[in-house]
């Protein structure tokens, strides 16, 4: 079996239930989810030490969930048979609370950076926010899994917390934004 089909050579692709242009907002949304998933894969490649095993487990779980969400975004039938599950969000919230308790409280904004895994998770956070905006635009007009927006919102919070934890566990301090002083109290 060949990897190429030539079916998209004129700029179209197949969603579940409809053929659309590759610029269609759903294709843009699940493409952004795919981009996010790929960057999570890069971040994972830097988390080789045992002290990151819990984060590696979380991120691998998230990669599978993102595939579920991407599949849901490619489904225009609106049949309500979603792969994305409501329990994705409470799990993220539990993990965010656990990770957030591990790091020092924030009093200032921080800059993305530090360890490579952390820096990549900051990129992931911004891609998750972009994906969220794209999903919101679709949700205003079409049926999507009820959990989609909430999941992406919570995921960006998880990625921020995980990025901070990577630096903390590696003995690196957050890079503080210098112009603001104690603005988050």
Automatic annotation (TrEMBL):
<keyword id="KW-0547">Nucleotide-binding</keyword>
<comment type="pathway">
    <text>Cofactor biosynthesis; adenosylcobalamin biosynthesis; adenosylcobalamin from cob(II)yrinate a,c-diamide: step 2/7.</text>
</comment>
<protein>
    <recommendedName>
        <fullName>Corrinoid adenosyltransferase</fullName>
        <ecNumber>2.5.1.17</ecNumber>
    </recommendedName>
</protein>
<dbReference type="InterPro" id="IPR029499">
    <property type="entry name" value="PduO-typ"/>
</dbReference>
<dbReference type="InterPro" id="IPR016030">
    <property type="entry name" value="CblAdoTrfase-like"/>
</dbReference>
<keyword id="KW-0067">ATP-binding</keyword>
<feature type="domain" description="Cobalamin adenosyltransferase-like">
    <location>
        <begin position="3"/>
        <end position="165"/>
    </location>
</feature>
<comment type="similarity">
    <text>Belongs to the Cob(I)alamin adenosyltransferase family.</text>
</comment>
<keyword id="KW-0808">Transferase</keyword>
<keyword id="KW-0169">Cobalamin biosynthesis</keyword>
<dbReference type="GO" id="GO:0008817">
    <property type="term" value="F:corrinoid adenosyltransferase activity"/>
</dbReference>
<dbReference type="Pfam" id="PF01923">
    <property type="entry name" value="Cob_adeno_trans"/>
</dbReference>
């Amino acid at each position: 079996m060949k990897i190429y089909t030539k079916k998209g050579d004129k700029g179209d692709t197949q969603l579940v239930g409809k053929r659309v242009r590759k610029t269609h907002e759903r294709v843009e949304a699940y493409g952004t989810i795919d981009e996010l998933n790929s960057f999570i894969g890069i971040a994972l490649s830097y988390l080789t030490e045992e002290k990151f095993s819990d984060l590696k487990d979380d991120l691998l779980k998230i990669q599978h969930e993102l595939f579920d969400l991407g599949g849901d975004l490619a489904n225009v039938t609106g049949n309500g048979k979603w792969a994305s599950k409501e329990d994705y969000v409470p799990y993220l919230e539990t993990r965010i609370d656990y990770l957030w308790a591990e790091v020092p409280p924030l009093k200032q904004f921080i800059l993305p950076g530090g360890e490579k895994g952390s820096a990549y998770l900051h990129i992931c956070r911004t891609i998750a926010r972009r994906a969220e905006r794209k999903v919101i635009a679709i949700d205003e007009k079409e049926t999507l899994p009820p959990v989609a927006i909430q999941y992406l919102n919570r995921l960006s919070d998880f990625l921020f917390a995980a990025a901070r934890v990577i630096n903390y566990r590696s003995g690196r301090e957050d890079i503080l934004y210098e112009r603001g002083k104690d603005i988050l109290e």
